[in-house]
Structures are given as structure tokens and as C-alpha cells.
Ubiquitin-like domain-containing protein (Cladophialophora chaetospira), 293 residues
Amino acid sequence: MADHPKMTLLSFRKTVQLPVDLTACKTAGDLVADLTKSEKKPSSLDFEDGSLYAISVRDGDDIPLNGNKYDARKALPAIKDGEIEVVSAPEDPFPITIRRPQSTDLANKLEDVIWVKNRDTVRELRTQIASKTGIQPWRQDLRTEDGQSLGSSHHLLVSDRISNSTTIIVRRSTPLKFGFQGAETEWTIVPLTSEIALCAALHKYAQKSSSSIDELQFSIRKRTGRGQQSVVDCIPNYTLFTAETATGTLEENGLDLGDEIHVFRQAPKRKSANNENGGATQATKKQKMAGGT
């Protein structure tokens, strides 16, 4: 079977000449603002087309009009022969850090570096992260360090203000099913991530179901992963436990997408017989003292 011929990419660069009045333009920002006005902007000029644009300066450094090095305050060069030349080039990729917390403490983490472009979409970013981490794109919970969630898959990274100084926190989405055992089982799905502590996950369920955590007992009924043996041994399947006795993260407990935890309401604590008798004895003593007998 014959091999397919290698494809060669042909790049066509068409010269665009645009007469403009630069009387009021003193800086790069002034020029960009003037050129991007809808009534002046030709269809072939788009500063958001994935290329880097800059004013060509013969005797100095080019002046960027977009991209990470763009400085709107940069003064325009002296105009020679009544012409300013704007050049373009494909955008250079830049590195960002992806951080994978191994616990709720962000200090316990794994880090990788990937290379992206401003015109990449969030979907393309997820694909790169999947190849680095093994976390499927649809299981990724992506946030910036300040907690802002990344936009939908078709969003451009530039729209989410992703730059070469950005760190993306990557968590594995691990929603669990909680089944409250009453006359009928009431199921509640709680959105969680794998590095969260099991105790914290139980508190999130209590909060979502408007229950008091002190009144609840739990039992792991479906556990997909193997987990960390020392942690799993602490809470075997079907064993009743409380939130305060829960240890480890969801991942360390072998809990994964769609796993089940049954929830039971504890019976109210009854006073012991000794306490009740003690109370009666004290009452009898008080009556005798009051009556003098």
C-alpha cells in the first residue's frame, strides 16, 4: 500500500495598504484602537486571528500591537516616507503550569508544564492535560489559582486571560451518590473531586441535605478503585462509621465516579439506667431535707 505524500503548508501573506490619519495617534494603543474601529477595519485585518502583529522599526526593536509583549503605552516611531509597515508572524507558544493537588493541602501536589497558544481553545487545553495526567477531558475540573473556573470548551484561552504566568489547578471530578435509608432510599449526587478528604465530602452531603452531621452514620456500599490499603482497611465496605472517624481522601479510599455511600440516621442517645436512678435518688434526698424526715 502506497504511503500518502507528505503535505506542505503554503502560507500566503497578502499586503494590505490602509490610508489612515495618525494625527491623534501617539502610542501603540492609540493605533490599535483606531484600526479596530468597525468603520475603518478591513475584513483582512484581525488582531485576534492567531498571528502576532508589530510595527517594523528599521533602526530598533519592533513595536508589538498584540500578544504578551504588547504595551499600549509604547510611543509610535517617527514616520518616514509617509508609511508605517506592520508585519505579522505566527504566534509563539508559551508555557503554563498545571498543578494536580494530591490532597486539600495545595502544598501536596504534582506539577507539569505544557505549551499553548492564546488562540487555543479550552477543549484543546483539556486534550493536552489528558495526555500529561491521564485524566479524561470530561473528568477535568480546571481552575486558575484564584479559583476562577475556565470557560466552556469552545472558549479561547486568551478570553480566560491565560498567559505564560498562569498556573491551572487540575482536579479529577468525582461525584458520589449518597443514599439516605428511610422508608425509601433518597438519592443525592454530590459533586466532588478526588483529592478532597472523605470527612469533608460527608460534611458536604450533610449541608446539601440540610442534615446535622452529628446525627448521621455512613456505609460505603460501592467502591470502584483499590485505594490506599491502610486507609481502605480503616473503613471496610458495609461498616458503619461517622464523619469524625473518616480518614483519607476519596482517592485514597478507592472512591470514584458514581460510587455509593449509604446514609443512616443515628437513634437518639438514651440516658442510662444508672443516671435515671441517680436522678431519682437525688430527688428523694431533696424531698427528705425539705420535709425534715
Notes: The mean pLDDT is 82.
